[in-house]
Give the backbone structure.
Amino acid sequence: MLINERTDFNLQNKKRWTPLHVAIHYERNKIVPQLILPENLNLPDIEGRTPLHLAVDKKSVENVKVLLNFSSDVKLNAQDNKQQTPLHLAAQHGHSEIVRQLLAVSTTIIDALDKDHNTALHLALQHVNGETAHLLIERSSKLEATNRKSQTPLHLASQAGLDTAVHALIQKGVHVNPRDKMQRTPLHMAALRGHVDVVQVLIDNSAQVDVTDTNGRTPLGLAIEDDIVTMLQNYMQ
């Protein structure tokens, strides 16, 4: 990329990328600081992604730091066409260092919802990113937020088999028996996926074992592991 005094740093191509977007996407990190202006710092591309979105998506700790340090006007709450913030992307990728960078600037973005009403924590758990999930659990004030499937973080942690995240959420005081749109509880999810350790944590914390989903099935009816079947049968006796 050639830079001279006539370069228009705000010029956009068909993707509505500025030279800053291009440099970040192709990881031309040395010239990124030269391309940042107040006018293009938060400029969205055709997918609604700002330069910060792209830096997070490329998992570039260096470029995220450069953008955050350039100005306090960088929009951490900017949402792309999927209504996802840079924090949503960092959580989805499981990039804990970038999550820390973003939250060090502001924690007000932590419970923002995307188009599916997922918080960053929902996405971290969906993608089985345990370390990132724990960072968000410690800082979020809405640990029982539900997405469009009426799933709470506890549903997703149980589904993912992240027993330490399940324990952390319960320690924070979340309800153990929330229902999603199929009327399934976290125990249903854990039993269905065969996560023995999660089933044990939920049972130890008073999860209901005799609840039925919309198909009339209990966690025992969905269990696929013999150990879980035995565990649930013993608990019901």
Residues 226-236 form the longest helix (11 residues).
